[in-house]
Predict the 3D structure of the following.
Amino acid sequence: MHSRNVEIAVGGFMAIGFAALFMLAMQVSNLTLLSAEKGYSVTARFQNIGGLKVRSPVSVAGVRIGQVTAINFDNKTFEAVVHLHIAERYSSLPKDTSASILTSGLLGEQYIGLDPGGDSVLLKDGDEIRLTQSALVLERFIGQFLYNKAQEGEAK
Amino acid sequence: MEQLAVLGRWTLEFFTRLGRAHILLYYLIRAVPEIRRHPRELIRQIHSVGGRSLVIILVSGIFVGMVLGLQGYNTLVDFGAAQSLGVLVALSLVRELGPVVSSLLYGGRAGSALAAEIGLMKATEQLAGMEMMAVDPIERVLVPRFLAGLVSMPLLAAIFSAVGIFGGYFVAVGLLGLDSGAFWSQMQAKVDLVNDVGNGLLKSVVFGFASTWIALFQGYDANPTAEGVSLATTRTVVHTALAVLALDFVLTALMFNKV
C-alpha cells in the first residue's frame, strides 16, 4: 500500500511538472499566437519599414489581430514587401484599408496599424493593401525639421 | 619548501578527486540501461528527490515571481513601460531564475540529502555489503538517484517558472492594477518557445545533471566517518552552487549571444 502511495505521489509530481511545461509553452510563449490559427494573408508595400520584424503585431484600433509573417525586398521597385497574417475571425476588413508602421510608446516595438476604409468589398487572401505609410525614421524627421527651420531663417 | 609541498599535495588531491568523479560518471552512464531491472526504485527516488522538493519550489517560485513583479514595476514605471512587466517577469524566470534558483534549492534540499544518504551507507558498510552479495552498488543505489535527478530537475524548474509567473501576475494585476490582457499578450509576443522556454529547459537539464553528479560523487567518495559524511554534505551544497552559477554563465553566453 505504501509503495502505491509513492507511485501516486510521483504521478502527481510528474503531472504537475508537465502541466507547468505545457503552461509555459502555450500560455507564456508565442506558440499560441495566430500562427497556428487559421486566417488569411495579405501583403503591403512600404518605402521604409524601420524596425519592423517578423512576428511584429498587426493591430486595428489597438487590438492585435495578426502578425507579420515575412518581410521581403522587391528588387524592381526597391520597396519592402511585408506579408501580414490576419486571423480568420477578423475577416471583415474593407479592401481600402490602409496600413501604417507605428511605434507603441516612446521606446516600444514597431507594429503595423490598420485603418479600415469604407469600401464594401472585403480584403481576401492574397490581396495587397494599397494605402501604406512608412515607418517614421527619427533622423530624417529631425533633418527635415532643421531644414525647415533654416528656410524660415532665410525667409526672414 | 614545506609550502611548496602543501601546494603540490593540494593540486594532486584536486586532480585525483576530479579523476575519480569522472570515473564514477563513466560507471554511472554505463550502468544506466540496467535501470529497467529496478523501475520501482526509480519511482521511489523520483519521489524523494523531486516530489519532496515540490513544496520549497512552489513557495519560493511564488515569492520570487512576486518580488520580480514589484521590483520590475518600480523600474519600468519610470519609463512608462509598466505594461511590459509581464515580459520582464516571464523572461527573467524562464531564462535565468527558474533554472538557476530551482537548481540551487535542489542542491540544498535534495543534493545534500543524497550525499548524506550515500555517505552514511558507505560509513555503515552497506555499500560494501552489497558488493559482497555481488550486487553492484552503482547500479542498484546510484543510478536510480542519478536518473531521478535528471528527470526531476527540468520539471522542478518548469514548475518554478510557471508558479513565479503567476506570482508576478498576482502582483501586477491584483496589487498594482495593470491590465491583465496586456500582461499576457506582451509576454506571448516577446517570449519565444525555442529560444527562451527551450533554452531554459536545456539549462535545467544540464544543472540537474551537474548537481546530481556532484551529490552522488561526494556521497560515494566520502570518508566513511561521521566527519567525512558531514564534509561531503557541505561540499555538495557549495560545489553545486558554484557549478550551477559557473555553468549558467557559460550556457547563457552560448545561448543568448545574438546581441
